[in-house]
Automatic annotation (TrEMBL):
Record field: compositional bias (Polar residues): 1192-1207
Residue span, Death domain: 750-815
The protein's name: Death domain-containing protein
GO biological process: signal transduction
PROSITE patterns the record matches: DEATH_DOMAIN
Domain of life, per lineage: Eukaryota
Taxonomic source organism: Rotaria sordida
PANTHER family: NON-SPECIFIC SERINE_THREONINE PROTEIN KINASE, SAM DOMAIN-CONTAINING PROTEIN-RELATED
Pfam family, one: Death
InterPro entries reported in the protein's UniProt record: DEATH-like_dom_sf, Death_dom, TIR_dom, Toll_tir_struct_dom_sf
Region (Disordered): 1175-1207
Length: 1207
């Protein structure tokens, strides 16, 4: 009776307040009253009653609660309950339906046997609900059931219905819906993505439909739309068919949103639209984009750059969206096989406009024009296939050059140099008009990246080279001969073709420089080779330097110096006759007699020179026969004696004599030709003398005018010098030169004491002491890493402290004259700033402090904010100074790093100032990170700096710290005074029998080679350079081991870490000396900036490159900057190795050896050789040895042919 009364009261509760209070009282006093049904028919009756329009919510709630403890009753009536929920939603009674969801379905969820029926019900109610009730539906019904569904391990056969439910949620088109759709899609390893093509197409359309929603909140559920699209993008990388399904609608959306203004509302699209736009661009199939769409994208970007200031609230989200559009455009252009010339012209026009726009915003971040220009410019070489394609970009390259040297945008130098390094070599006709710029880079600034390009351009347009010949000769020995070898190659290129350009002043200058730089004598081979051409054409220039050449030959045993002497002796003999022939033969024979420990090669060349003279003057040579007898055991001397005695020669010797006769005939022709030229020049000179006499009177008339012009020229010269100083240095030109002149004068308080007071290390001061102007180098570094007013204040204060009031007075007078204020007091620390800046988010501070300690023990001082400097502007100023003064910025990234405004500010300042950036993942996270830093970090390879072992006191794996040190070493050398014992030789791999060198023992104990420890030896003249990414270091060391055992000289970066030089310079030298590059290709290798740089240089130098594919990549050639280099190079496949401990075996390794045999035939791999030439220990290892290792001999060097010796 109580049960019936309760139900009756609930049924009529809508009629009166009294009836509505009865169920409340009864359910409170008798909570179990309604738990059982006496008749099963009652269940159907009560559910049906719930659907009556006039029924009260109290009744519905009461009926739903009756199922809470009746699991069997729920199982029996589940279908009727689903039907009830559907009908309640169709009546817009969402709250009543929610009672059944909360009190029945959620409580008994694990007892639901037919999830398919439930999902169909959920999909149905999403289509039934009124627009006004959709938000309530999400909150009341979708939210609780979606979390239950995602937490339950469901049968994968239901995956398609799950996906349909996701589509139904998204089709609600309300702010709350994407959150639950994203939650449903996040189920791992559940959806059959490859079979969901059509549903994914509908999903993309559903996301696009949200672009009309306006939401003023910064954070909202709409942000989940980007997560959904990013998930689809990740799956498309695995299942290519997804990209076919998304392409069309994604392309339409991106083009639509590129207008910024929504045509339907007349207002700008909301921020969530542009957040969707970034992953949406990734869902466009690059291979399906035609030329006209690329042209349309260029027009869109051009419009954004041109009208940036006119667009309402062009913000961070717009910026990132258009960056994604730029990246899309660049990748689409690369996919096009052949670009029409009109598109090249459009790209060039866009780049030129971008280069004329500001490159940084007020906060230091990159502008859209800068970012877009960079994205397109860096990929240019990949889609330039002929000269016509390249010509439109000349004006862009010239603009970059102006920006670098006239507007001091130094970070753009790499853009300019990379373009010409590739384009200049491939299409020299395009580069011909820019030779003066290239020569300025090489001769004035000693930037040698373009040396190979310039050498190839000489024959096309020699005039600019001839105009700079004097400058080149004076620059050869600049910086103590640091660039002597490289500049000598250019000198040799010019003189080989036009030896007549060399004058006696040039010869005087060269011999003086050689004598003053004997420490660099080993690098003079190309100079003597070039002088040999001059001696052959103008032997009289060497008359007074014969003794000097002899001295070089005797003291230095220099074959190159003798080659020059040989040309001089032979040519002067032909010109001057028998007496000179007799003198020169006597000189050569005495050279053999008097030179101690003369080498076999040098002795052979001397005998051959005697033969060259003897061919012309055999009678005189015959008079020297007795002098030759003591040396007749030498085969070359025996040939000479047989020639004198006219004995019958074997075929080989007779051929050599015939060749010698031809050589002499050629020399005589050249001499006769030169004499005729001299006679013609003499006649011309006489005629000119007559003309000059007649002109003398006229010249006097113009003297007065010339004097006036001279004064103007001197004024302009001073102005040019002033501008040059501003262009080439950070030091103010008003006083820089005068100050440096005084500080360079050696004294107790000269530039060295100033540098110590600034805080620079001994190794840095030693490096600057090798420069032409040490003071300028020191001050340039100081002003480059500080703001001008701070740098000036610090300089004046320290000059006063060290007693250099004379220098201080010059600066103060110059500042006063220029009308600049002299800072009286600035709150700064007057010291050099650490070379490493640690950027981190505060939750990682403990780990970063540990990292800072270890880096300092390895020789690198670090700057990090430890919370002791206060906040606000003061902290920001210090961070700004720390980044500007650093050589490398390390980003210690945890999951909250990308969301931190301060961390984002630090990253943007790093990028805008052109500082190298190294990301560390301090904990597991997606890469690139979500948010503002995603597009920036996608261009960098991170180092995984987590997964700490339990027994390790550090927060990172040991090998990853070594990898970090290796990355830092590219940009800055450690301070030797800071390095602790723990980090001496950190770069030496801990493996046994690393270098397979055996001590050689001869009869003479002096020649014994002693290797005291197992430290590796540095190969300075390698045959093979191994280019790789550090993740495969263990395998690469095994490759190094195998090739070394076979007798190859290999260059590996981990053995070049010692010393104070930049590792980039060592890599440059290694590639230039190598005969072959082994490129170990992996996905990370393709993305590595340093690996790209190595391969680009090797390709520019036309070095043979052998790709070894170690890991699966999507396509060959790999996408990106390396595509053009690898396009025509077949790889050797090492991907399928089943033996984890050794991959360098089998037919693949035999293919490697076969390629090496073709490129380096002199190495006999059949006879294992274990000795390397020209090797030395790393600098840091040398400190622990008593003596420097002796030179180790290799296989015999192939002797020069006589023809080559003569040439």
């Amino acid at each position: 009776m109580q049960e019936k009364f309760l139900k009756w009261a609930a049924l009529n509760s809508y009629q009166s307040k009294i009836w509505s209070e009865v169920p409340c009282v009864l359910t409170y006093t008798l909570p179990t009253l309604f738990n059982n049904y006496t008749n099963s028919d009652d269940v159907q009756y009560y559910l049906t009653t719930c659907l009556e329009p006039s029924i009260s919510s109290d009744y519905v709630k009461l009926i739903s609660k009756s199922y809470q403890c009746q699991v069997d009753m729920f199982k029996t009536n589940a279908s009727q309950i689903y039907t009830t929920i559907v009908k309640l939603v169709s009546q817009n009674r969402i709250d009543d339906a929610g009672y059944f969801m909360d009190n029945v379905l959620i409580i008994h969820f694990n007892s639901i046997s037919n999830l398919e029926e439930l999902l169909h019900m959920l999909i149905h109610i999403c289509s039934l609900v009124n627009i006004e009730s959709r938000s309530l539906l999400c909150k009341t019904l979708i939210s609780p059931i979606s979390y239950e569904l995602t937490n339950k391990k469901c049968n994968k056969n239901l995956a398609r219905i799950f996906f349909d439910f996701v589509l139904a949620i998204l089709n609600l088109n309300i702010i709350e819906a994407p959150k639950y759709a994203d939650h449903m899609l996040s189920i791992n390893d559940f959806y059959p993505w490859k079979q969901l093509d059509k549903q994914i197409t509908h999903l993309i359309q559903s996301c696009i439909n949200y672009d009309n929603i306006i939401n003023d909140e910064y954070f909202s559920e709409l942000d989940n739309l980007r997560k959904i699209l990013s998930l689809i993008n990740e799956r498309s990388k695995i299942h290519v068919t997804i990209l076919h399904a998304t392409h069309e609608f994604a392309l339409q959306a991106v083009l639509k949103w590129s207008t910024i203004i929504n045509n339907d509302t007349g207002k700008p699209y909301d921020k969530h639209v542009f957040e969707m736009g970034q992953p949406m661009t990734e869902l466009i199939d690059r291979r399906q984009i035609p030329v006209d769409i690329c042209s349309k994208f260029l027009e869109i970007l051009r419009k954004q750059i041109d009208n940036n200031d006119e667009i309402c609230d062009f913000n961070y989200f717009h910026h990132n969206f258009f960056l994604s559009v730029t990246k899309l455009l660049a990748e689409c252009i690369v996919q096009l096989k052949n670009l029409p010339l009109t598109l090249h012209q459009q790209i060039a026009s866009f780049c030129l406009v971008a280069f004329n726009c500001p490159f940084t915003n007020e906060d230091g971040s990159m502008t859209l024009s800068h970012s877009a220009g960079l994205a397109l410019w860096c990929r240019l070489p990949q889609y330039i296939h002929n000269e016509d394609d390249a010509y439109p970009y000349e004006s862009c390259a010239d603009r970059l050059y102006q920006l670098v040297y006239k507007e001091e945008e130094q970070q753009l130098y790499q853009w300019w140099i990379n373009f010409w390094c590739i384009i200049g070599l491939k299409y020299p006709n395009v580069a011909v008009n820019h030779i003066p710029q290239f020569l300025d880079e090489i001769i004035n600034r000693k930037r040698l990246d373009l040396l190979s390009t310039v050498s190839a351009l000489y024959n096309k347009r020699p005039e600019p080279f001839h105009a700079r010949l004097d400058d080149l000769i004076h620059a050869l020995f600049d910086c103590n001969g640091q660039h002597l070898t490289s500049l000598s190659i250019l000198f040799d290129t010019i003189v080989k073709v036009h030896p007549e350009l060399i004058t006696s002043k040039h010869i005087d200058s060269l011999f003086t420089s050689i004598k003053n730089h004997m420490s660099s004598f080993d690098q003079t081979n190309y100079i003597f080779q070039a002088l040999g051409y001059v001696a052959n054409a103008q032997p009289h220039l060497f008359d007074k330097y014969q003794e000097e050449l002899l001295h070089f030959v005797i003291e230095q045993h220099s074959l190159s110096a003798f080659s020059c002497l040989q040309q001089y002796l032979v040519t002067s003999t032909i010109i001057k006759g028998e007496k000179t022939a007799d003198e020169n033969l006597t000189l050569l024979i005495n050279l053999i007699k008097n030179t101690k420990n003369i080498s076999t090669d040098l002795k052979s060349q001397i005998f051959y020179t005697c033969q060259l003279i003897g061919v012309k003057y055999k009678e005189i040579l015959a008079t020297k026969r007795n002098d030759l007898i003591p040396f007749e055991s030498d085969s070359a001397c025996q040939v000479l004696i047989n020639f004198i005695d006219e004995n019958k020669l074997n075929e080989e010797n007779q051929a050599a004599i015939n060749h010698t006769l031809d050589e002499i005939a050629q020399i005589e022709k050249r001499v006769v030709h030169t004499e005729r030229d001299v006679q013609n020049i003499t006649k011309v000179v006489k005629r000119q003398e007559l003309n000059i006499t007649n002109l003398n009177t006229r010249v006097n008339i113009f003297d007065t005018r010339i004097n006036d012009i001279t004064e103007q020229v001197e004024y302009h010269t001073r102005e040019i010098e002033r501008i040059d100083m501003k262009t080439l240095s950070y030091v103010p030109s008003e006083w820089g030169r005068d100050v440096c002149t005084l500080l360079n004068i050696r004294a107790d308080n000269d530039w060295r004491l100033l540098g110590k007071r600034f805080g620079y290390s001994t190794s840095e001061l030693k490096h600057w002491s090798m420069q032409m102007d040490p003071s300028m180098s020191l001050l340039n570094e100081w002003f480059m890493t500080h703001k001008t007013d701070e740098a000036t204040y610090g300089l004046l204060k320290i000059l006063n402290d060290i007693g250099r009031q004379d220098v201080e007075e010059i600066i103060r007078k110059a500042l006063t004259k220029a009308g600049e204020l002299i800072p009286d007091d600035i709150s700064i620390e007057i010291k050099r700033l650490p070379p490493i800046f640690l950027s981190y988010q505060w939750s990682s501070q403990k780990a970063v402090l540990k990292l800072k300690t270890n880096l300092e023990q390895a020789g690198y001082s670090c700057w990090m904010d430890t919370g002791q400097m206060g906040g606000g502007d003061k902290l920001f100023a210090k961070i700004d100074a720390g980044i500007r003064g650093a050589k490398v910025v390390i980003c210690c990234m945890n999951k909250t790093y990308a969301q931190s405004d301060n961390c984002s500010r630090e990253v943007h300042l790093t990028i805008s100032t052109g500082k190298p950036l190294i990301p560390l993942q301090m904990e597991k996270q997606t890469w690139p990170p979500e948010g503002a830093l995603g597009p920036i970090m996608s261009e960098y390879l991170y180092i995984r700096f987590y997964d700490r072992k339990n027994n390790d006191e550090n927060y990172w794996p040991t090998d990853k710290f070594a990898e970090l040190l290796g990355q830092i070493r590219y940009y800055v050398a450690p301070d030797p005074d800071m390095i602790t014992q723990q980090y001496y030789n950190w770069f030496v791999p801990r493996v046994d029998n690393l270098i397979f060198l055996q001590s050689q023992t001869t009869n003479d104990n002096k020649d014994k080679i002693i290797i005291k420890d197992n430290l590796p030896l540095v190969v300075t003249h390698p045959q093979i350079m191994i280019s790789y990414q550090w993740d495969y270091q263990k395998d690469i060391i095994n490759l190094y081991e195998k090739l070394t055992k076979l007798g190859y000289r290999c260059w590996l970066d981990i053995f070049q870490m010692g010393g104070g030089d930049s590792l980039f310079e060592k890599i440059d030298a290694g590639i230039r000396h190598a005969k072959c590059i082994l490129s170990c290709v992996t996905p990370k290798y393709i993305k590595s900036i340093n690996c790209r740089r190595e391969i680009a240089l090797a390709d520019a130098l036309q070095k043979p490159i052998v790709p070894l594919l170690l890991e699966e990549i999507s396509t060959w050639p790999p996408a990106g900057p390396m595509a053009m280099i690898f396009a025509e190079k077949p790889y050797i496949d090492f991907r399928c190795s089943t033996n984890d401990s050794e991959i360098w075996i089998g037919k693949e390794f035999e293919l490697v050896l076969a390629r090496l045999k073709q490129i380096i035939p002199e190495v006999q791999t059949e006879k294992s050789q274990r000795h390397l030439i020209d090797m030395q220990r790393p600098t840091t290892a040398m400190k622990r040895q008593e003596k420097k290792p002796q030179r180790i001999r290799s296989t015999p060097v192939t002797p020069q042919s006589r023809a080559c010796s003569l040439m």
